[in-house]
Amino acid sequence: MTVCVILAAGEGKRMRPLTGSRPKVMLPLAGRPMLEHLICEVRDAGISEFILVVGYGESAIRDYFGDGTKLCISIWYVTQKRQLGTGDALLTVSPHVKEDFLLLNGDIVLKSKDVRNVLNIPAPAMAVCTSTHPQDYGSVTLSGDMVSGLVEKSPTPPSTLINAGLYHFDIKIFEFLKNITSSPRGEFELTDALMYYIRNGDLRGVLIDFWADMGSPWDLLGIHEEMMKTTPSKHEGIIEEGVFIKGNVSIGSGTIILSGTYLEGPCIIGENCKIGPHAYIRPGTTIGNDCHIGHCSELKNTIIMNRTNVPHFSYIGDSIIGSGCNFGAGTKVANLRHDKASIVIGGIDTRRRKFGAVIGDDVLFGINCSVNVGSIVGNQCRIGPHAIVEGKIEDKTVIR
User: Fold this and answer.
1) pTM
2) Domains contained in the chain, CATH given
3) Which EC number applies (predicted)?
């Protein structure tokens, strides 16, 4: 029986501040951790045995998934004690894998049919897909169906095909991994081991249809929008008279929706929340558990994590908000430039015309704060009344 190995040990530094208190693979997409979406797609491709390589924040992963019973699979865990790269991470499972296996990066989104297609190709094989910005990834060249070249993050990529982070390997990969040396950044890279296959003309490339990488917070919001399109309707909470619901809206148990609130799907509201009265929840919004969205507050296309409160007269659009935050009355998050150009954060083009802010955990805002487009607010910041927030704000900053 084929085993699937998933690399889930990394911190995800480019996702800061969202990964300050959780591993990257546990960031939510459409109400569930991204890793759960990935595991379910692989399961639906016919695999039931999983090995998760964990490290940073591993207790969150172990506690959530356990032995896999709730997903009707079996999960074993291997700990990468020091984050020394993808090659080192894979080498930690070598004592536990004795035949061909599937390998995936834990921070990607795939579809089961593509996983099945790669699995059906004899090992060694690697999934590839087309990208509009291949310079950000490993660019792949093919000769027929064989991989003939792989260049990492070149400003002049040789093709628009990229390495999708999904592999069907034989156990030779472990011997290749033992022979690689550390990269200039001090890590042992899986891609260096792939060159042994490529030089021998042994690595097949398999073109897949759907793929998304979670490299930066705005990537998270982009794929979240796509996933929300399939949100099912579920009303398990209490819905008062005078609430209007349009489209597919999921409401968790213990949640109360107060009179005058307008819910426009697709949107997801978790368990034990209080929404309204007269709140407006617009499409693409996901609200975690134990949240309060109050009177005349409006949320649009936004991820709100657990225990965050937006009590009254506030607006948040196209943003990602961590857990345990509180927005003072009248706080607004802008999400569109006057010139309608794409939002640039720290010199990086998000390729998004609308993007609000990334706000870490346990951030408290006073009344009537204004947060400008593309702002990143670190964990445990304290923002005083009437403050204007823009740019990157480091953890534990106090703005008076």
Assistant:
1) 0.90
2) 3-215 (3.90.550.10), 231-399 (2.160.10.10)
3) 2.3.1.157, 2.7.7.23
